[in-house]
Each structure stands twice: as structure tokens, then as C-alpha cells.
Amino acid sequence: MLIVTTELDEYGWEILGKPLKGQIIADPVTGVELAIEVSGVDTDKLRRFILSVLWRSSVSILDVYSNVSLGTKFQKGVQARIFDPKPLSLRRILNVFLCDRRTVL
């Protein structure tokens, strides 16, 4: 099996592949941890990494990803956005995930 890594993969692993250290955000009533606020993260690069994992899963022929499909309408657009030099906004990435829940996952 050939595994190809990119700068995005390396960055995604650097950020997500180890325990995050930062300010814990908890529910003020229950005390349940909701998130960790981390500084110094290139969120544009991290968003592109997440999109690239989704896109690669969608175009993969491996059985483990057989239920992941962006559909042909969205595959090309997502692929183009991964490599588009303009910053990728949070609103834009949410549009990808919410555009059609039946075909995304």
C-alpha cells in the first residue's frame, strides 16, 4: 500500500496527533469539558487538512470508506478548495459538511 503524505497531513498530525494543551472550556453548570482552546494553530491549514481527509475518503476505493461520499457535484469543488490559496473560512467548511448530510457521511 502506498501512503502519500503532504504538508497538510504533517500539520494535521502535528496538531491532532498528540494531546492538546490549552485552556479547557467547560459547561459552567455541569463542569463537563466541552472544548480546549488552543493558541498558535494555523486554522486555515487545519481546515484544509480536514477537508483533504474527507475528500480522500470520498474518492477512495477501499471498503472501509465505502459509506463516505461527497458525490461528484461536491468532490471537485472540495478538491479545488483544498489547494485554493485563498483562506478557507469557517463558514465555507461548514457549508461543505452541512450541504447534504445524506451524501457526506
A few lines on this structure:
This protein is 50% helix and 9% strand. It has 105 residues and is mainly α. Strand 1 and strand 2 form a beta hairpin.
Can you give a write-up of this model?
With 105 residues, the chain is mainly alpha-helical. The protein has one domain (7-104). It is 50% helix and 9% strand. It has five helices and two strands. The chain has helices at residues 7-16, 43-59, 71-83, 90-98, 101-104, and strands at residues 23-26, 33-37. The chain has a two-stranded antiparallel ribbon. A hairpin with a 6-residue loop joins strand 1 (23-26) and strand 2 (33-37). The protein is globular. The model is unreliable at 98-105 (pLDDT under 50).
Query: Percent helix among the residues?
Result: 40-55%
Distance between the termini: 24 Å
pLDDT averaged over residues? 79
Helix count from the secondary structure assignment: 5
Oligomer: single chain
Q: Beta-strand percentage?
A: 5-15%
Order of neighbouring strands in the sheet with most strands: 1-2
Order of helices and strands: HEEHHHH
Unreliable spans are: 98-105
Number of domains: 1
Per DSSP E runs of 2 or more residues, the count of β-strands stands at 2
Instruction: Give the radius of gyration.
Output: 16 Å
Largest sheet: 2 strands, antiparallel
Question: How is the secondary structure organized here?
Answer:
Layout (H helix, E strand, L loop, with lengths): L6 H10 L6 E4 L6 E5 L5 H17 L11 H13 L6 H9 L2 H4 L1
Antiparallel strand pairs: 1-2
Notable features of this structure?
single chain; 105 residues; mainly alpha; two-stranded antiparallel sheet; 5 helices; 2 strands
